[in-house]
Amino acid sequence: MNRLDEILHFNTAFVEQRGYEPYQTSKFPDKKLVVLSCMDTRLSDLLPRAMNLNNGDAKFIKNAGAVVSHPFGSVMRSILVAVYDLGAEEVCVVGHYGCGMASINPDETLRKATTEGGVSDTVIATLEQAGIDLHHWLQRIESIPDSVRASVEMIKSHPLMPKWLKVHGLVIDPDTGRLDLVVDGNRPAQSVNGDIQS
Q1: What percent of the chain has pLDDT over 90?
Q2: CB of 66 closer than 8 Å to CB of 148
Q3: pTM for the structure as a whole
Q4: Of 190, 142, 161, residue with least CA distance to 79
């Protein structure tokens, strides 16, 4: 049985046995919170437990590195919708130690795209000639706390974001669940170590 068939087979039994009942909630986050985190598999269950978040408490957005890379990309759109249409009042950007984006090698990723993914060199060249800097797009994160700070600042300074929105930055240990505070959105002019945020 392939992976999709396994999923569908399980799902049939899940629905018939009413396994969904403990998860029923509304589309509005009970704690008025948005959490942007990395897609790392270690965080799927650990992060909500470490933050004392139950099903329905928060809107979760996941991507590689918990990075807001573009002010008008899908991550920012999701945050805006959560704030204006779903009642969120706070955002937590949560990076994590040992993130794969801290060790990514753009050259190696592009090599795999051509050798393993069947993407032709012509496609790569066409994208680069069209002005897409693939190496920058795939760049690694040099510092997880600095990356979290940059994402927090991009959210806070977005022209469509309300000034009252609290945006916090944290880094989680994927082994223990310990959260380290990087930016306290309740103190918007300072980071937790007292330095003025850029």
Answers
A1: 93
A2: yes
A3: 0.90
A4: 161
